[in-house]
Amino acid sequence: MRILRDIAGATLVVGALSISLANAQPAHEYPNRPIKLIAPAPPGGAYDYVARTVADGLQKAWGQPVVVENRAGAGGVIGVEAAARSPGDGYTLLIGSTGPFSVSQRLIKNLRYDPVKDFSPIGRIAIMPSYLVVNENVPAKTTEEFVAYAKAHPGKLSYASTGNGFSQFTNVELLKSMAGLHIVPVSYRGSGPALTDLLGRQVDMMIELGPQAIPYIKAGKLRVLASTTKKRTDAMPDVPTLDESGVPGFEASTWFALYAPAGTPPHIVAKLHSEMSRIFSTSELKARMATVGAEVAITSAQELVTFQASETKKWTAVIDKAGIQPE
User: Fold this and answer.
1) Which of 50, 93, 123, 197 would bridge with 202, disulfide CB 3.0–4.6 Å?
2) Distance CA 142, CA 226 (A)
3) In order of start, what are the domains of the chain with their CATH numbers?
4) 143-152 and 167-179 are packed helices; what angle lies between their axes, rounded to 10 degrees?
């Protein structure tokens, strides 16, 4: 009987040890199954572009599928909420950005995630400028003419917004506040339908990110008046900035970063940051991002924390000055 008890006890110990070893996955074994990368916006937009660039790089490097899941809605909030509720095991990742991480907490009363506490930051990836574009309904050929026209016709012009948390909304509200304009927002579920109505002259103007705006600008379908950056962009060096076009001090770029749910093991966060840095440091990738006006701007996790806090402070001040009330 004692022998049987000893055997049974040894079996239990071995079994427990096996389970323990299985759960304590070494860094070199991650990843060993598909990864889900949430892009909290519809397909075809800047979020999607960045997400698929990251997914493609990780998949090639690690030989595991990295599936982009587009979870659009509520200015990015729906997708970010889904990521916040996911296990912190490295198999759910998120492309975060200015809106849901530095704006939404000021615009949404009952936000169901904490942009700081609910996530493990991995690092910023890129900064992307936007462009002020108008259709043929608007007679202005320059920003100065646009501002003068808008002031002469308060409430007549409309702009396409993709939701209160996104740059297409906050950048125009910043312009309105700084230039003293009254332009009416029209909301859309993503850049695709917003641009369709802008091209169809259902709305008059938009401040849109490079990946979506540049093709229409180059095709002559939209007139570009200015970029939102402090200095002219490499993608469109002939386009003046808002700062140099009668709105001094205007500067706004959209940033994109990689996050994991809170509780993700440090060795997984470190491995993701290392691989992301390697992917985006190649000249090929930098050139690819530059074609859509984006600048690769990799940071460490701690640098992202500091940067995110500064952006939150900046946009809170903009929203307060504009008198925008949370919904």
Assistant:
1) 197
2) 8
3) 34-128+253-322 (3.40.190.150), 130-227 (3.40.190.10)
4) 70
Phi, psi angles (nearest 5°) of residue 104? -60, -35
Tell the burial category of 219 from Cβ atoms under 10 Å away from its Cβ (0-12, 13-18, 19+).
exposed
Q: Could you tell me the two tokens for 89?
A: 């095991």
Q: Is 12 helix (H, G, I), strand (E, B) or coil?
A: helix
| 175 close to 151: Cβ distance less than 8 angstroms | no
Contacts of 90 by beta carbon, 8 Å cutoff, 6+ apart: 30, 31, 35, 260, 264, 265, 268, 272
Which residues are registered as beta bridge partners of 97?
A: 256
Q: Token pair for residue 24?
A: 């304590």
Task: Write down the pTM of the prediction.
Answer: 0.80
* Per-residue model confidence as pLDDT tens digits over 85-139: 999 999 999 999 998 999 988 888 889 999 999 999 999 999 999 999 999 999 9
Beta-carbon contacts of 192 under 8 Å, excluding residues fewer than 6 positions away, are 42, 44, 45
Place of tokens 């504009």: 322
Summarize the chain as % helix, strand, coil (round to 5).
45, 20, 35
134-183, pLDDT tens digit by residue?
999 999 999 999 999 999 999 999 999 987 778 888 899 999 989 999 99
For residues 317 and 207, give the distance between their C-alpha atoms in angstroms, rounded to a whole number.
Answer: 20
